[in-house]
Amino acid sequence: MSDVPDPWQHRVDAVWLDRALDDDARIAAIDALAAELGGEHSVALFERAGARDSAGREQEAEPLYRAALAAGLDPARRTRAVIQLASTIRNLGKTDDALAMLADEYTATRGGQLADEAAAFYALALVSSGDTVRAASVALTALAPHLTHYTRSVTGYADELLDPRR
Q1: 118 with 79: CB under 8 angstroms?
Q2: How many angstroms separate the CA atoms of 27 and 120, rounded?
Q3: What is the mean predicted confidence (pLDDT) over 94-106?
Q4: How far is CA 29 from CA 10, 23, 90, 97, in A?
Q5: DSSP character for 112?
Q6: 83 CB contacts (<8 Å, ≥6 apart)?
Q7: Is-contact 51 21, C-beta < 8 A?
Q8: Given 3-state DSSP classes, what are the helix, strand and coil percentages for the chain, each rounded to the nearest 5?
Q9: In what helix (H) or strand (E) does residue 149 lie, and over which residues does it extend?
Q10: Span 3-62, pLDDT tens digits
Q11: Domain map of the chain by residue range?
């Protein structure tokens, strides 16, 4: 149930890109577009959650993200929904739940399209949990392949942070 017509997605994308919209207007615009798909459509739920999350309304966003995930999303949106939900619940003080979700997503996405995004939010959750060394290792591991030089060294140092005997 995560298929949407291209023209619909283009209109949603345009709402997200429209810097003239304030939070309330963006939520209203997304809600209107979501209504076209129906209240239980997974992508409609996901977009509604994202609009609220972006506006700092995490408590409103959380159940919408959960409903979107339960309704079934395509793999890329599912990963985005997990990352966004985990970030939301981390902001709501549910660090352990966020950390568990992001650890799983970090592992599942390694080498995939949204691997760096999962790593970034996993690192943030690790910092929130007090595990700053593991957070640095995760962040450096994600960064290393993008470096012009020193990829192997940075990867080695990231591993060494977790196991100083290396």
Answers
A1: yes
A2: 26
A3: 96
A4: 13, 10, 27, 31
A5: S
A6: 102, 105, 114, 117, 118, 121
A7: no
A8: 75, 0, 25
A9: none
A10: 888 999 999 999 999 999 999 999 999 999 999 999 899 999 999 999 999 999 999 999
A11: 1-73, 96-166
Please tell me the distance from the alpha carbon of residue 76 to that of residue 136, in angstroms, as a whole number.
25
The pLDDT value recorded for residue 164 is 77
* Residue written as token pair 């609009």: 51
pLDDT at 5: 87
Contacts of 34 (CB under 8 A, 6+ apart): 41, 44, 45, 47, 48
DSSP 146: G
CATH of the domain spanning 1-73, picked from 3.30.70, 1.25.40, 1.20.1540, 1.10.287: 1.25.40
**Which tokens belong to 99?**
């950390």
Total residues found in the chain within this entry? 166
What is the predicted pLDDT for the residue at 157?
94
In one-letter notation, the amino acid at residue 153 is S
Q: Is 59 exposed, middle or buried (0-12, 13-18, 19+ CB in 10 A)?
A: exposed
